[in-house]
Amino acid sequence: MRRYSAQDRERLMEAQAQSGLTIKAFCEREGINPWTLYEWRKKKPLAMQRQPRFAEVEVAPRLAAAVEVLLPNGARVGIRHQGKRDDLVALVRGVAGC
After folding, report:
1. Could you read off the pLDDT of 42-55 as tens digits, one per residue?
2. Where are the domains of the chain?
3. pLDDT digits (tens, 9 = 90+) for 54-75
4. In whole angstroms, what is the distance from residue 45 CA to residue 18 CA?
5. Distances in Å between the alpha carbon of 21 and those of 35, 37, 52?
6. Can you tell me the distance from the alpha carbon of 77 to that of 87, in angstroms, rounded to the nearest whole number?
């Protein structure tokens, strides 16, 4: 049975966290028993353990227009349409001043 120094344990725990691999996959790659890594993590002080972080995210409804015209002065004019040709014609005529 191999003994790991504190530095080795820290290095391996950090490497696993950064690898994006599961503990099982990481340990297979490194030749370590997964339970060994689990035990190291349990013994690590809670304040030093990496805790998952979640943030509440609110997704705003899509406000972008389905058809948008950029005017020479930088203004944008847009409409949402559902395949109504007359709406598009009216927008283009209005912008063009026809």
Report:
1. 887 654 555 666 77
2. 6-48, 67-96
3. 777 777 666 555 667 777 777 7
4. 19
5. 15, 13, 15
6. 13
